Amino acid sequence: MSVLPFVTEFHDLSLAYQGHHKPWLVALSLFMAILAAFASMFHTDIMRAAKSTAQRNFWHLSGSVAMGLGIWAMHFIGMVSYRIDVPIFYTPTLTAISVIPAVLAAWVTLAILYRRINSWWSTIGGGVLMGAGIGTMHYTGMAAMETVAEMRYVPNWFFASIVVAIVMAVLALAIRSVLKPYIQHRRLRISLSAVVMGLAVASMHYTAMHATVFFPNTNASSIAVSGASSSDLVMSTLIVAMFIVVISTVVVVLINKQKSLEQTAEQRGQKVQELTDRLHRIADRVPGMVYQLSRDEHGVLSFNYISSASKQLFGVAPEDALENPSVILQLVPAQQRLAIFESLNKSAFNLTPWKYEFPVELEPGSRKWLAATAQVQREQDGVVSWSGFISDVTDKKTNEETIQRLAFYDSLTHLPNRRMIVRELNERIAGTLVSAQGVLLWNINLDNFKRINDVHGQEQGDELLKAAAKRIQGCLMNDMLLGRLTADEFIIVTSIPSNQQEDEVAESLTQCILGALSAPYKLPKLRQQGTASIGFVSSYDNEVSAEELLRRSDLAVHQAKRQGGNKWLKYHEGIEQEVSELFALESDLREAIGTEELQLYYQLQVNDKHEYIGAEALTRWIHPERGLVSPGVFIPIAEESGLIIPIGEWVIRTACLQLAAWEKHEETKHISISVNVSARQFYQDNFVDLVLAEVEQAGINPKMLMLELTESLVLEDMELVVEQMYALKKHGIRFSMDDFGTGYSSLSYLSTLPFDEVKIDQAFIRRAASPEHVKDWSIVEAIIGITKKLHMDVIAEGVETTAQQERLLASGCTRYQGYLFSKPSPISKLPLPR
């Protein structure tokens, strides 16, 4: 017999047995189908709630078995409900095997329902597989039937059963999604879906049963049948059905209970979450970081809560700070960290609000300021908590620092200004009462700074001031404060335990500063060499005010400048009288200009044949009461007061007139006159015109006028010096470099500056004669050799002995000036015609 025997044209359907179904079994089978579908629907929810793949696969399998058994039970209840006039038995093996297609169909159904596939193509494909599985189960179960009648299938109804199985399966899979927009109640939607799925399974079965016909068999007496009887199968099927009903009911009840509890918990959790989210949103809107900090009984700090602003303020995620609060605390500098702990302890002890400002460093060199404020609360077991917020006050702190800087610091060098220095001095003076320390003060004034500003502009002057400040800072010792008092005036303040160390500290620091400030400066548009004068004052008396100390230091530094600069002086009471005398001298000098008190002396210059070749004009002041005032006294006064300008003009005018007088005599017309020119005089805008005007007015040969320039003058502005020199040389006026060899870079400038003569400084001539400075003569010989190669004249000044003159001659120097040949004398006492 074939697996699927169909009715052929040779069969007479009128001969077939007339079967019928028992209604109560049909109703039971339909109920079983719906119940199985209902159980499967809830299994998909259980699968979605599974927390792991293993759990989901377990519930998928158990749901497939439950649904498959339910479908199988519905099938056999429906089969045994069908009655014909011959007994029917069932083969146990095939009956059992028919369960497998039902379970597989259930597996496909659950997979589709679990994934909530909304694609029609996926739904149709799943319906085909589900319908095929149910059909396979049905016809496998039908094949398990054994009876003396001949069982066959009507082809049209057979294929109709397959179509019904597939269509109803597709509808069953799609109905849940189709009903969702129209039915909001979830359980009702599930129940309707289960009914449709149950009807789908039942409709296929009963359509297939309608396709089955039984014919009497003429060989019935020879057919032996065996297996389970209908009554046995009904009993076993009912047992299975009851098992499924019980299991399904238990599952549904448990699921409903679980869902109810979960829903209640979820609703409460959502409520809590909403409140928490609202709190977080409020905290995030607060201008800063909201936090709760607690300290346990052992003093250990931890965060109970911290808002998301921690990322912005500290660069630390809230969860990281909650787990390990040190990630925030370690951003605070160690010293400030200790201060924070102390302030927290004080707040906890007194139960007072905590307010504190502290810096944090998120990156090296990058600092921001934060302000913390919180209310404190003492809890159980010695626990203390603070609830508050932290805000960024960097802008506020920056503004405060800007105000502080503008009020107490110099905008150019960023050093403390006069106000800050006075405050610091007052604090140190007040501290002498309890510490028995003295106060030391250095006043540093840059020599000739005003001329740099006037000649080269304020930009170069500012650069020089900044460079000088850095050099001074390089000499400072511990606990020393450097400030800028005025344009070119710096102040150093420190304290010292006793006057026993005063001299050592003063000497060491001043020598360092003088050396640092005398080195050449490489400014943006200028190479400048300068010096400084320093006034030093000390006080161990708290009665002396800060202003008084500054005044004393100012007197000392001005005295140092009057003595030529590039030195330091300590204040003493005698300086007061000296300053008064200098002021009186300045007043007298001002009145002496244009009178016979100022006279021009001349020191003659000779060659190796003792012939007069020139003279240096030297200014002398014959005071009516003081007598002859040393140039070393009144020339610095003239430089500082500006009187050097009219004095210099008078010197050039007088020298030109003397040259005009000498040109009238044959024995003196070859003698030139050298005139010293000060830097302040040389850098005047009208200096060239003034000299040329005097030469023209006197009617002299310009070559007979020699202008002497010092190296310090040349170094102030090389470009301007060269310009001025060539402007005068174009008219025949000659130049001599005075005091050659005492500076730092004279040799390099000889090749670039248009000098006609070089004067060897008298200091070399004097030292070279002594045994301990015999090496100085090598310098003298080097200068002579270089000037000859540069085709310049060389003259040695300060020649006082015949031995010096003979040695100079042996070295190649043939021009001399000194007391050996001529002392500075007025024109009337020179051995020359007037």
Automatic annotation (TrEMBL):
NCBIfam families: GGDEF. Residues 437-573 form the GGDEF domain. GO terms for cellular component: membrane. This is Bifunctional diguanylate cyclase/phosphodiesterase. CDD domains: EAL, GGDEF, PAS. Residues 582-834 form the EAL domain. SUPFAM superfamilies: EAL domain-like, Nucleotide cyclase, PYP-like sensor domain (PAS domain). InterPro entries: Biofilm_reg_signaling (IPR052155), EAL_dom (IPR001633), EAL_sf (IPR035919), GGDEF_dom (IPR000160), MHYT_dom (IPR005330), Nucleotide_cyclase (IPR029787), PAS (IPR000014), PAS-assoc_C (IPR000700). The keyword Coiled coil does not apply. Residues 354-405 form the PAC domain. The keyword GTP-binding does not apply. The chain crosses the membrane at residues 24-46, 58-82, 88-113, 120-137, 157-179, 191-213, 233-255. Keywords: Membrane, Transmembrane, Transmembrane helix. Residues 21-215 form the MHYT domain. Gene3D superfamilies: 3.30.70.270, EAL domain, PAS domain. It comes from Aliidiomarina taiwanensis.
